[in-house]
Amino acid sequence: MPVLGLGVYLAQNGGEAEQAVLWALQQGYRLIDTAKIYENEEDVGKAVRGSGIPRDQIFVTTKLATSDHGKENTIQACQESLRKLDLDYVDLYLIHSPSGGKILETWGAMIELKKRGLAKSIGVSNFNVHHLKPLKEAYPDYIPAVNQIELSPYLTFDEVVAYCQKEHIALEAYCPLAK
Predict the structure, then answer these.
(1) Cβ proximity of 115 and 139 under 8 Å
(2) How many Cα atoms sit within 13 Å of 58 on the Cβ side?
(3) CA 141 to centroid of chain Cα atoms
(4) Residue 11 CB neighbour total at 10 angstroms
(5) How many angstroms separate the CA atoms of 143 and 118, rounded?
(6) Residue 175 — very low, low, confident or very high, per pLDDT cuts 50/70/90?
(7) What pLDDT, on the 0 to 100 scale, is given for residue 1?
(8) DSSP string of 38-96?
(9) Which of the residues 29, 38, 154, 174 is marked catalytic?
(10) Most buried one in 71, 84, 141, 167, CB count within 10 A?
(11) Whether pTM exceeds 0.85
(12) What is the chain's alpha carbon radius of gyration, rounded to the nearest angstrom?
């Protein structure tokens, strides 16, 4: 996973997000982060495909919406994201938030997506220690690869950081310079 990436939260579909991603890729960025709820997966996919950069050199992350938690919904939501992106797989598929409930059932579906090759890696976003521990207990062979959290010099989440480091869960910061 590249160290630096472009998140397209608030970038509009219909050209704006596509141009932002193309510019970032031209500048050397190789990680692009989107989500179903950002409503710009189509533009991200157009930019990735139109960049002239081989697909295996661009790391694409998208996220499962809280309204799509549960086994069948998770599978369908990932397939829909792939359709919008017009990609065969994503490099990282994240549960966007634990607030959708059905976390263990949803994580089981995420594992299925990884096994099918629709997501090369699976992880979570905005999870605290009390959300992560049940995943480890229920699925000890499938620990999240990543926990994407808001992390900056002003917002450190020491307990979550320590737990992720101990369990070898990569931390990915959003808003690393603060909001």
Answers:
(1) no
(2) 28
(3) 20
(4) 20
(5) 18
(6) confident
(7) 94
(8) GT-HHHHHHHHHHSSS-GGGSEEEEEE-GGG-SHHHHHHHHHHHHHHHT-S-EEEEEE-
(9) 38
(10) 84
(11) yes
(12) 16
Average pLDDT of the chain to the nearest whole number:
96
Q: What is the sign of the dihedral through the CA atoms of 87, 31, 105 and 167?
A: positive
**Which amino acid, one-letter code, is at 85?**
L
Residue holding tokens 């995943």? 135
Known active-site residue 154: no
**CB distance 122 to 145 below 8 Å:** yes
Neighbours of 169 (CB within 10 A): 22
Q: How many CA atoms lie within 13 A of 62 on its CB side?
A: 29
In order of 32, 110, 111, the CA distances from 80 in angstroms are 18, 14, 17
Q: CB neighbours (10 Å) of residue 119?
A: 25
Task: Report d(CA 161, CA 152) in Å as an integer.
Answer: 12
**Residues 6+ away with beta carbon under 8 Å from 112:** 71, 75
Q: Output the pLDDT for position 56.
A: 97
pLDDT (tens digit per residue) in 40-69: 999 999 999 999 999 999 999 999 999 999
